[in-house]
Amino acid sequence: MSKIAVYAGTFDPVTNGHTDIIERAVKVFDRLVVAVAESTPKTTLFSANERKELILEAMPELLDRIEVRTFKGLLVDFVREIGATVIVRGLRAVSDYEYEAQMAIINRQLAPTTETVFLMTSRRSSFISSSVVRQIAEHNGDLSSLVPPNVAAKLKDKFKR
Ligand code: COA
Question: The pTM is what?
Answer without folding.
Answer: 0.94
